[in-house]
Design goal:
By secondary structure, the chain is mainly α. The chain is built from four helices and no strands. It is elongated, with a radius of gyration of 16 Å.
């Protein structure tokens, strides 16, 4: 059995981060959706750690997260402040950023996996 590569340990770390992201959604009005989104990223990260996911799936899932990040980006960026009563644009920016973090993590795992496998 081959040893683990550094990107796989980073994937394990990101899995924990995504689980924390999911936990942080518990009081969100659309909590079920966002908990599912972050737990899906955590699960994919676990599969990366275990080397149980093919590159094409990493690319496909990454694209879905990128599309969501682009779609949710607010028409007018008003920052990421705590005062969400000011505007829904703040919430959209946060959600978009969360999806972008998922995208960047998963696409990075794909690139690292590809480099290690020499493809």
């Amino acid at each position: 059995m081959r040893g683990k590569h550094i990107y796989q340990y980073i994937a394990l770390f990101m899995m924990a981060i995504f689980v924390l992201f999911a936990i942080a959604q518990y009081n969100d009005p659309d909590a079920a959706l966002w908990i599912g989104i972050y737990l899906a990223a955590a699960f994919v990260s676990l599969l990366v750690f275990l080397n149980q996911i093919r590159g094409i799936w990493l690319i496909s899932i990454s694209i879905v997260y990128l599309a969501g990040a682009i779609f949710l980006w607010p028409a007018e960026y008003e920052g990421l402040t705590m005062d969400m009563d000011k505007s829904m644009n703040i919430e959209y920016a946060r959600e978009s950023l969360g999806l972008a973090i998922c995208f960047l993590s998963l696409i990075s795992f794909y690139l690292a996996k590809r480099k290690v496998e020499g493809k």
